[in-house]
Each structure stands twice: as structure tokens, then as C-alpha cells.
């Protein structure tokens, strides 16, 4: 991933306002962005003048990439009049005849912080974001609060209130639930993806502007869901470490058909400051080694899986055993990730060998094809739920999801029950080529890895069902999807052409061995019939070795002369 140079160098190119030892003044215009360089010691005074009389509320907001900034109404911030974070804003409710608004900005920690600021006006009929705040510190809080884990992202915000004229009292928040109260408001949650593999500050600054105003949010964002006043104002999304995402909420008043936007918030679901596993190097070394070796085996199986039948069985058995064991050991133990991955690799090898041994001993094509068909079926079902179909509300229910998922997965071996060779070639080509995608994901971000990763998250986490799993699909994903499709198509085609004149499956090795043994025991003309049994041959060999170490006897007469 590419990370931008120091902000100061960029500011020289952009002509951004710089502030030295004295406090600086930042003149703003409504609806216009300004980039500003902040520090801890010298607060910046942001001022808007000549505000029109039809504007009743001004929403001022500031954004930085990774360093917190402090925004306040006063030079000395207090808890109830300031906000701290990388994406923060304040609502200024205008008094009659007021034409000037002032806010103060500074960096929370030492060092310079590149930020961008904007002020957005609201009219008297526009709903006020966060106007019915009962949870956070500000009286009117238009901010979206975000926290993340490696599994999911959680955003929450305060309910909005109806708009009102200057000098009037705000409408009561809980006086009723009719159409004349704030309960008629609707909340549309939007998501916007930053360019993949780009962690630069300037990219964020340019794209955050597309998610600030109502019209720009509707034009550029992806509408994920709509909440009513009866719903809780918090939403969960699947976490995409290393991928920049911006979220915003538009509150809509259906009576007046007016809207207002909250303060957009962004995340990369990773840390810029950690020395290990930071945003620039997310994959661990153990993960890279595991999936690179897995991809080598998968690529071989993609083109030669049916010809090398035992290798194909080992590959499919490895997948099943490794997946089941990783889920089990993660749920019941607290071992570190590296230890779990090593044990998973060992369990996968054992599972693959067991499937090969079961084929050698019992020769059941049905059992082997059931395993192979389930692997292909689970990949097909995971791909189906990777599409927008997976975000349908009905699949929030775990019972509905898993029943549907299993039925789709079982459909594959059922459809191909009459042509097992075709099923095996399709499975080895498609599944084998997908391991290359997983290996690429260890080095370059691609959303295609979440086809199986989201399934694993849902198995391991009881509450992942509440998360929306939408992912970006950009240039890298199209390239890698083309590589996957090309490898799968090539592998299937090569195997079909090579195996069309061959027997569908190799003969049962154990039966061949038994038949050969019986033939040797009954056919006296067969030279192998006269070969001594294995026990006798081992005994003779040991005697030969024993004689080799015995001392030579002295020459001459060894018995007494007869008288």
C-alpha cells in the first residue's frame, strides 16, 4: 500500500494555511472546504461571516486522517462544548440577527496535523442532526461515533430533531410519536469506499468531500439501509482492514421533504502507528507462508488434480480438516494466531492423508466425491452470499442463513451425482485456482478474499449476522477476478481434454493388491509364485547379515582321527 509523504510537503504544493507561534485565523464560506494545518499549541480560529437570515443552523466539521483534533466553541474547550476525534463537528444554533459564527481548532497531540474543514447551512425546515441527543456530551450532537475490531465496524449516532426558526424553542423530543413529532424522521445510512491500496492523506481529504453534503452523499455513496425512529440508531458492518471506508447518515423529513447530513466518519479498521500488523503490513508472516504453500498445491491440483487422484484427494481432505479444526481450536482455546495456524496445517495434512488412506482401503468413489462436491458446494454458496443477496434482512436470522447455505452447498454434489468425473475436474479447477486468490490477498488487498473469510467470521462470531458485508469492487478486484476465471477455465479445459479417453477413475488399489496376491498364490507358472513368503525372505536376509559379521574359522582338520 502507498502512504503519502509528510503533510508539510503536500501543503507547500497546495498553498494550505500554515500557522506559526501565534493563533491563526481561518476565514470560511458556507459549503466550501478549506485545508488547514493544525498544531497543539496554537489554536486556529475559524470564522464565517455574513450568514444569511434564512439560515437557522450551521454545522461545522473538521476531518483528519489519523491524528485527533479538538474542535470547540471557546478557546478553552469544555466537555459540553467541544469534540475530540479524527472526524468531529459542532452545531451552532443561530440567534436572531446573528451573522457571524466562530469555532476553534487545534491538534490534540504534539506535531502538525493536516485537516480539512467545512461549514454546512441548514434552513428552518431542515431536520437537525443529533438534535435529540440523550447519550453523548454535546447538547446537539451531529457526530457519528465509530469503533472497530478485526471482525466488524460499529457506528452509532444521536437521533435528529425537527427544524425550527431562529429564536424559537426546539420541538420537544419525546412529547409524542405522531406525524407532528420527530418520530416521522427517517435515517438513510450510506457507505463509500476509498481507492484500494491507497492510504494517502490527500486521497482521504479529496474523497471525504464527496460524503459531506446531502446531494453529494446521495450521488456518491451506497445506500445500505433505512432506519425509522423506532429503530436503534446503531449499525454494524463487516471490517475491512487496510481498506478506507467513509460512512454518513442522511436524516429525511417526509412531511417537508427536506434532509440534512450528519458528520461523515472514516476508518481503515487498522492502526497506522503499530510496529507490527499496521495498515501497511496487515498479513502476518505465518499467514503468507501458509497460503503461499497452499496456493502451490492448489495450482497443481487446478491443472493435474484428476490425473494425480491421490493428490487431489489430499488437497480436498486438507481443506475440510483444516477448516473444521481451525473453527474448533479458535472457539475452545485461547492460543495465539500463529500457534493455531501451525496446528491447523498439521490437522489439514492428517485429514488429507486420512482421505487418501480411506480411498486406498475402501475404494469408495461415492465418499470421495461427496467430500469433493461439498468443498465446491461451500465455495459456490459462499460466493452467492458474497453478492448483495447476503445483505438481505431475512438472512440476519442464523437459522434461515445456515439452512439456505447448506441447501445451496448440497445442491452441487446432487446435480453431479451421475457424472463424478466432471464434478471432480470442476472442483479441482475452481477450488484450486481460488487458492491463488487467497495467496494474492496476503500481499495485496482484494475483496475476493472475503468470499470465504466472511463465512469463517460468521462461524466464529455469534453476532456477525448483524453486520452488513458489502465490500468494494475496484480495479484490483477485476484483475484478480480475471486471473481466477482464467486459471479455473484453463485448468478445467486441460483436464477435460486430457482425460476424455481415460477411465473415469483409477481402479481400487486395495482390490488390485488382493487380486495380485491371489494370482501369485495360484499360478505356478508365474515366476513370482516361487518367491518365498515375506517372513521367510526377511529371515534369510537377517541370517545373511549375521554371517557377514561372524569370524572366519581356521583352516585344517576340525574332527579327531578315527582309530
Automatic annotation (TrEMBL):
Keyword Coiled coil in record: no
Organism: Geospiza parvula (Small tree-finch)
Phylogenetic placement of the source organism: Eukaryota, Metazoa, Chordata, Craniata, Vertebrata
Classification via InterPro entries: TM7S3/TM198-like_dom, TM7SF3
Taxonomy, superkingdom: Eukaryota
Principal subcellular localisation of the protein: membrane
Subcellular location: Membrane
Protein name in the entry: Transmembrane 7 superfamily member 3
GO cellular component, one term: plasma membrane
Membrane topology: Multi-pass membrane protein
GO biological process: negative regulation of programmed cell death
Entry keyword Nucleus: no
Record key words, sorted: Membrane, Transmembrane, Transmembrane helix
Residues annotated as domain TM7S3/TM198-like: 292-496
Amino acid at each position: 500500500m502507498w502512504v503519502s509523504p509528510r503533510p508539510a510537503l503536500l501543503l507547500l504544493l497546495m498553498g494550505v494555511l500554515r500557522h506559526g507561534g501565534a493563533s491563526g485565523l481561518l476565514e470560511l464560506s458556507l459549503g466550501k472546504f478549506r485545508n488547514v494545518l493544525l498544531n497543539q499549541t496554537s489554536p486556529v480560529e475559524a470564522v464565517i461571516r455574513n450568514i444569511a437570515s434564512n439560515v437557522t443552523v450551521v454545522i461545522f466539521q473538521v476531518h483528519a486522517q489519523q491524528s485527533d483534533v479538538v474542535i470547540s466553541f471557546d478557546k478553552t474547550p469544555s466537555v459540553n462544548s467541544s469534540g475530540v476525534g479524527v472526524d468531529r463537528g459542532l452545531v451552532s444554533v443561530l440567534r436572531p440577527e446573528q451573522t457571524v459564527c466562530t469555532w476553534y481548532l487545534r491538534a490534540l497531540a504534539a506535531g502538525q496535523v493536516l485537516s480539512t474543514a467545512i461549514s454546512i447551512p441548514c434552513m428552518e425546515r431542515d431536520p437537525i442532526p443529533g438534535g435529540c441527543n440523550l447519550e453523548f456530551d454535546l447538547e446537539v450532537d451531529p457526530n457519528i461515533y465509530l469503533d472497530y475490531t478485526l471482525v466488524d465496524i460499529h457506528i452509532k449516532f444521536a437521533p435528529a430533531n425537527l427544524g425550527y426558526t431562529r429564536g424559537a424553542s426546539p420541538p420537544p423530543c419525546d412529547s409524542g410519536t405522531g406525524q407532528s413529532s420527530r418520530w416521522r424522521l427517517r435515517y438513510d445510512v450510506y457507505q463509500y469506499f476509498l481507492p484500494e491500496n491507497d492510504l494517502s492523506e490527500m486521497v482521504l481529504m479529496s474523497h471525504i468531500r464527496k460524503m459531506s453534503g446531502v446531494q453529494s452523499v446521495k450521488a456518491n455513496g451506497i445506500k445500505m439501509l433505512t432506519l425509522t425512529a423506532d429503530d436503534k440508531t446503531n449499525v454494524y458492518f463487516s471490517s475491512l482492514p487496510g481498506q478506507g471506508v467513509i460512512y454518513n447518515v442522511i436524516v429525511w423529513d417526509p412531511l417537508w421533504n427536506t434532509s440534512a447530513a450528519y458528520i461523515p466518519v472514516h476508518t481503515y479498521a487498522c492502526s497506522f502507528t503499530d510496529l507490527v500488523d499496521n495498515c501497511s503490513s496487515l498479513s502476518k508472516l505465518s499467514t503468507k507462508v501458509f497460503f503461499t504453500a497452499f496456493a502451490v498445491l492448489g495450482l497443481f491440483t487446478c491443472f493435474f488434480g484428476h490425473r494425480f487422484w491421490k493428490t487431489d484427494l489430499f488437497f480436498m481432505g486438507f481443506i475440510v480438516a483444516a477448516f473444521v479444526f481451525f473453527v474448533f481450536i479458535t472457539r475452545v482455546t485461547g492460543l495465539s494466531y500463529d500457534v493455531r495456524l501451525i496446528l491447523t496445517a498439521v490437522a489439514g495434512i492428517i485429514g488429507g492423508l486420512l482421505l487418501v488412506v480411506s480411498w486406498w482401503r475402501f475404494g469408495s468413489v461415492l465418499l470421495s466425491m461427496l467430500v469433493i462436491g461439498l468443498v465446491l458446494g461451500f465455495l459456490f454458496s459462499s460466493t452467492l452470499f458474497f453478492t448483495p443477496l447476503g445483505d438481505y434482512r431475512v438472512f440476519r436470522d442464523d437459522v434461515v442463513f445456515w439452512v439456505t447455505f447448506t441447501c445451496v452447498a448440497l445442491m452441487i454434489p446432487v446435480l453431479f451425482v451421475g457424472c463424478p468425473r466432471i464434478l471432480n475436474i470442476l472442483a479441482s479447477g475452481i477450488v484450486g485456482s481460488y487458492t491463488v486468490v487467497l495467496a494474492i490477498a496476503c500481499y495485496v488487498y482484494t475483496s475476493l478474499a472475503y468470499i470465504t473469510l466472511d463465512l469463517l467470521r460468521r462461524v466464529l462470531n455469534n453476532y456477525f449476522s448483524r453486520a452488513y458485508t458489502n465490500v468494494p469492487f475496484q480495479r484490483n478486484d477485476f484483475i484478480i477476478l480475471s486471473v481466477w476465471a482464467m486459471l479455473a477455465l484453463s485448468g478445467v479445459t486441460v483436464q477435460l481434454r486430457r482425460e476424455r479417453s481415460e477411465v473415469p477413475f483409477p481402479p481400487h488399489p486395495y482390490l488390485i493388491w488382493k487380486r495380485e496376491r491371489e494370482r501369485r498364490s495360484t499360478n505356478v507358472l508365474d515366476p513370482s509364485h516361487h518367491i518365498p513368503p515375506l517372513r521367510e525372505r526377511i529371515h534369510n536376509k537377517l541370517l545373511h547379515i549375521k554371517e557377514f559379521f561372524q569370524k572366519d574359522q581356521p583352516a585344517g582338520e576340525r574332527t579327531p582321527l578315527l582309530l
